[in-house]
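Supplementary Methods. Inverse-folding protocol.

Structures were first reduced to a discrete structure-token string of length 547. This string, shown here, constituted the complete conditioning input.
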């Protein structure tokens, strides 16, 4: 309260800015629940209670024995998740997502069983229950949201619980459920279009239809006397099997945007939709900071190529690269790529002030990203893409000015204490350092692209040496200590950077000049200056910024 009044007073006196920068304030309560053990136990108890509700309701023989079997499967599921997916097990929200999606499939299966046993509709007969159960729902959703390992995990355990719900442990039913789930995961390894989900659903339906034919769930079929077959029933059962997969995929596709929003997960589908260059911030950048816009496009190409080479998310890298320098929109003229070479604004500033302006583009970028409600991963990469690195040019400039002041002080008999000290911390970004592979790749691509512009007559040897030196410099500065990149992956990244830069910085052969006759001007015509002629760079060109 008093801080607010004091700030208003400073603003009125012109001693403070009226602008309030947006900040990401983590919710302490949510963070504590996210990693709390009691939250996980509450979730496990709720899931076990849900299993009891599904098993003990309806007409099922020996429900107590089936519930004990289901609990044993549940214990195995928890142990498997703890061993194979420790990161998912550590987060309560991820556990909630996994088990809630599985429970939704089991609940839908129970509804199908109840409707088939009640014979409310002519189509829903007890014999058709195995063809209508949504075997692939949880594998589809979790494969797209969390990856194929989670999809396979769901396919195995949801199939076991489905067999428990059916009452009798049937090997053909288990095979149909597991193969349908595995097929769903295989067909959704890379989903970049929502239509791909429908294709995956058709593949699941086709696999279920083939298995149902093989195990006699469709039929009976008499191959020796086709006229004796009930073709109407066979057609209906075949349509139910294939339609089951398509309908399941359609429902999963409709539910994905809701789950993405609730659990803050972004799929490749959403990243591809976010890569539209008509975003208001990118359109502003094309007009106000065209050099930064072009730099971001090149960084996107470098980062995407390197990410795909090591198995990281290339689409995420491309989209985040578009926005990583969006904070330069606040003061675009202070960055080299946007200067017009007529005047360098840093010539009139102290090195510390220049460094503050350069460093501030990270905070300004976070502010703009939050104002435009960009994805939280984009905001993270804006904060992390410089880590705690040094604005080296202005730091060296400050050291040079300090040496000049000391040399002049000796002549003027000044005391040593009158010469201001240069603190390296004043010239470092505030961080944090890159936390993920994608963030580290964008950080390296940003640095490599900026430095490659200073190469004169680039050759493969020069480019390779530049890339290797810059990556080694980042390693020595401990900027990659908090991400999980390995040395082998860094070598692959360097090779992809080198190859991409060679294709972009290649030289062209000098074509012979074409001799053309210049038409004479008519008396009423006057020569006009060529507006497309390039302006010569003045001798006092601005330095290459470390940003």
């Amino acid at each position: 309260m008093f801080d607010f009044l004091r700030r208003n007073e400073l603003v009125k006196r012109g001693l403070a800015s009226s602008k309030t920068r947006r900040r990401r304030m983590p919710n302490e309560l949510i963070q504590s629940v996210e990693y709390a053990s009691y939250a996980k136990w509450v979730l496990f108890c709720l899931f076990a209670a849900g299993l009891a509700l599904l098993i003990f309701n309806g007409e099922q023989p020996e429900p107590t024995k089936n519930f004990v079997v289901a609990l044993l499967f549940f214990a195995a599921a928890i142990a498997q998740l703890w061993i194979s997916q420790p990161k998912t097990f550590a987060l309560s929200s991820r556990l909630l997502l996994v088990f809630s999606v599985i429970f939704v499939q089991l609940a839908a299966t129970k509804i199908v069983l109840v409707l088939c046993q009640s014979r409310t509709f002519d189509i829903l007969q007890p014999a058709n229950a195995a063809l209508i159960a949504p075997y692939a729902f949880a594998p589809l959703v979790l494969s797209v949201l969390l990856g194929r390992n989670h999809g396979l995990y769901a396919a195995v355990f949801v199939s076991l619980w489905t067999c428990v719900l059916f009452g009798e442990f049937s090997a053909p039913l288990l095979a149909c459920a597991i193969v349908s789930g595995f097929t769903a995961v295989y067909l959704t390894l890379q989903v970049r279009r929502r239509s791909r989900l429908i294709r995956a659903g058709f593949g699941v339906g086709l696999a279920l239809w083939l298995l149902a034919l093989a195990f006699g769930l469709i039929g009976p079929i008499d191959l020796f006397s086709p006229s004796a077959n009930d073709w109407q029933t066979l057609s209906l059962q075949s349509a139910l099997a294939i339609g089951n997969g398509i309908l399941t995929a359609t429902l999963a596709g409709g539910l994905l945007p809701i789950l993405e929003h609730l659990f803050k997960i972004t799929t490749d589908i959403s990243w591809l939709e976010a890569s539209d260059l008509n975003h208001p911030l990118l359109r502003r950048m094309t007009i106000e900071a065209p050099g930064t816009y072009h730099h971001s496009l090149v960084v996107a190409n470098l980062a995407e190529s390197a990410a795909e080479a090591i198995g990281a998310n290339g689409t995420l890298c491309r989209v985040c690269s578009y926005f990583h320098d969006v904070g330069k929109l606040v003061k675009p003229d202070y960055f080299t790529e946007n200067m017009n070479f007529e005047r360098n604004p840093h010539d009139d500033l102290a090195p510390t002030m220049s460094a503050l302006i350069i460093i501030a583009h990270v905070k300004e970028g976070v502010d703009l990203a939050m104002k435009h409600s960009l994805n939280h991963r984009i905001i993270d990469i804006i904060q992390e893409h410089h880590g705690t690195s040094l604005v080296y040019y202005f730091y060296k400039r400050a050291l040079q000015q300090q040496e000049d002041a000391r040399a002049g002080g000796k002549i003027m008999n000044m005391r040593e204490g009158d010469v201001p000290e240069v603190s390296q911390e004043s010239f470092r970004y505030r961080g944090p350092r890159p936390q993920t592979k994608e963030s580290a790749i964008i950080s390296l691509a940003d640095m490599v692209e900026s430095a490659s512009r200073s190469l004169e007559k680039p050759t493969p040897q020069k480019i390779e040496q530049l890339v290797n030196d810059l990556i080694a410099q980042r390693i020595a500065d401990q900027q990659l200590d908090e991400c999980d990149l390995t040395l082998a992956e860094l070598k692959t990244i360097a090779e992809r950077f080198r190859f991409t830069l060679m294709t972009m910085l290649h030289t062209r052969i000098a074509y012979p000049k074409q001799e053309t006759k210049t038409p004479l001007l008519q008396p009423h015509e006057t020569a006009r200056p060529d507006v497309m002629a390039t302006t010569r760079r003045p001798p006092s060109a601005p330095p290459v910024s470390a940003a």
